[in-house]
Amino acid sequence: MPDKLNLAVLISGGGSNLQALIDACAAPDFPARIQLVISNRPDAYGIERAKIANIDTKIIDHNKYTKRIEFEKRVQNALSNYPIDLICLAGFMRILTADFINHWPKKIINTHPALLPKFGGKGMYGEHVHRAVLEAGETESGASIHYVIPEVDQGPVISQAKVPVLAADTINTLSTRVIEQEHKLYPEAVKKIASERRP
Ligand code: GRF
Fold first, then answer.
1. Which protein residue has the closest C-alpha to ligand 1 atom 9?
2. How many domains does the chain have?
3. Which ligand 1 atom is nearest residue 20's CA?
4. Model-level pTM?
């Protein structure tokens, strides 16, 4: 089997998408492994998930840095200790600068809880996305895995999964239905990228 893709996963919270990637990587034939998990929040439960899976972790608290580039310098330093092929943003709640993103061309991907290009952009995260979907009267929503470019949520879509929006839906019920799809979609997208990068 060709070399596996080496992943870094960046998180800010619960890390259920990280868990989906950890679980996928546990299969011997999955074409990727997680080298490092970075959280910008010291209390992110995802850090515990990584530790349980024996994955190296690094907490880089963005509150300690007044400038975004100072924070990102620490992130770059942490990444430079590992042979990273692909950075997976998984519930990572910081906007990255163009400098950072351009340093990793086509090597940063993200999961977004809606059918991009709809319901993306600054301010469209977490429950704001689902509220907007419900308020717009959409009949379907879903999840998107996309490449990260400097324009927030506008990078090329790698894969999407749709879910119905039901009349009785609340932010809670809709987000639960969507995140179940993200958990399947994220490992699939990593697999797809791995297969495309092979000679
Ligand atoms: C996901 O729905 C992701 O799309 C959004 O935040 C959620 C992260 O959940 N940006 P988790 O931390 O992976 O559990």
1. 91
2. 1
3. 13
4. 0.96
